[in-house]
Amino acid sequence: MRIQIGPLIVTALAVIVLLLIAFPPTVDFSRAQVGLNTPLPLSRGEQRLVPGKPSAVRGEKVFQKQCALCHGPEGRGDGPAASKLVTPGRSLLTDFLGVFGIKVKAEQLPSRPANFHNLDAQRLNSPFLNYETVTLGRPHTAMPAFGPRAPYGVNKGAMLTDQERWDVVFFEWEFQTSAERLARAKEIYENRVIEGNTCASCHGVAGDGRGPRGAEMAGKLWTWAAGRGPGIFTDINHLGQRKPSDLFQVIEDGSPNGLMPSYKGKLSEDEMWMLVEYVYTFVYEPKGQVK
Ligand code: HEC
Ligand code: HEC
After folding, report:
1. Is residue 12 in contact with ligand 1, taking CB distance under 6 Å?
2. For ligand 1, is residue 134 a contact (CB within 6 Å)?
3. 283 vs 274: CA distance, rounded Å
4. Distance separating alpha carbons of residues 164 and 47, to the nearest angstrom
5. pLDDT by residue (tens digit) across 222-273?
6. Which ligand does the CA of 261 lie closest to?
7. Ligand 2: distance of its center to the CA of 275 in Å?
8. Which residue from 212, 246, 213, 211 is spatially nearest to 230, judged by alpha carbons?
């Protein structure tokens, strides 16, 4: 009996295609791997985790060149390309068919750039989450990857260095604040005495935990003695992974160990948010967006 190869191949291909449709491979872009005590996973061979102190001033140039087209010059998500953006329209099935020279695009849905003035969204993102988005892109959206390796389903943008990506992340970060808010927060942080202390009494004017009461805190907290961890605002590996909403919560409720007082009812909510915005400026060179 002669075995008919042709129909067998066709059947096998059909089965593979059906399996791919039934069980599409998932792209894992969860952020679960990053814990507060894990150093930020930057490129191999990098001595320090963040290459140099990020600068919002330098980041502005990168933003206007690479991001404004979609996100708009003011970060409102209304750049010239914004209204026409669509998802990449790639799936494993379309790629598979491409192997046989069959060029098809999966459905391309509209994809809208983020508006960085949306405080609800901004306050739930840590600088590191934004760095990760800029580095890896968002699979199956129009947000391209600016890092060396784009994961599956992502468009490739222009390659930016590690430093440029950190710089642009902190430029974008400042859309949630303004020079005026940062100046008001600095004033409160250094000068407003509440129950005998300013924020700087413990955290230090420079945010390094070396205020007059810093040594006392360091005596009780090994992290402060080591100059890193919660409350040491110059530690970018810690602060870079904290979301504004996390920090707000600590200012409002105090810390479980009781060393950080609760400011509920002693500062207004808006003042607490301003202080959160100010606290991040210890890890980067601020520009201060004026709204
Ligand atoms: C081709 C258009 C395009 C370009 C260029 C682009 N973005 Fe985006 N970006 C998007 C889209 C679309 C989204 C929304 C993705 C989604 O739906 O989740 C997005 C989302 C983001 C987010 C996530 C915001 C959030 O709330 O989670 C960040 C951060 C971001 N972009 C930063 C940048 C930066 C920085 C640059 C420049 C280096 C840049 N983008 C360039 C299209 C673009
Ligand atoms: C009496 C000392 C003291 C004072 C005053 C104080 N803090 Fe703290 N703060 C701490 C300590 C200690 C921690 C670390 C607590 C811990 O181990 O979680 C901390 C933690 C924090 C954190 C959380 C950091 C993180 O990653 O979880 C924020 C934000 C903060 N302080 C802001 C402020 C602000 C703003 C003020 C002034 C309104 C202030 N603190 C006043 C001692 C103080």
Report:
1. no
2. yes
3. 16
4. 17
5. 999 999 999 999 999 999 999 999 999 999 999 999 999 999 999 999 999 9
6. 2
7. 11
8. 246
- Please answer whether residues 82 and 70 qualify as being in contact, where contact means their C-beta atoms are separated by less than 8 angstroms: yes
Tokens of 193: 């005495």
Cβ(159) to ligand 1 under 6 A?
no
Q: How far is CA 181 from CA 54, 93, 126, 266, 270, in A?
A: 20, 50, 19, 18, 10
- d(Cα 172, Cα 121) in Å, to the nearest integer? 13
Inter-residue contact 264 to 217 (CB < 8 Å): no
Q: What is the mean pLDDT of residues 184-211?
A: 97
CA of 140 to the centre of ligand 1 (A): 12
- Beta-carbon contacts of 134 under 8 Å, excluding residues fewer than 6 positions away, are 146, 147, 160, 165, 168, 169
pLDDT at 145: 97
Maximal C-alpha separation, the chain: 96
Q: Is the CB of 168 under 6 A from ligand 1?
A: yes
Q: Is the CB of 207 under 6 A from ligand 2?
A: no
Q: Output the pLDDT for position 24.
A: 64
C-beta of 141 in contact with ligand 1 (< 6 A):
yes
pLDDT digits (tens, 9 = 90+) for 43-98: 444 345 677 899 999 999 999 999 999 999 999 999 999 999 999 888 889 989 99
Distance CA 68, CA 139 (A): 20
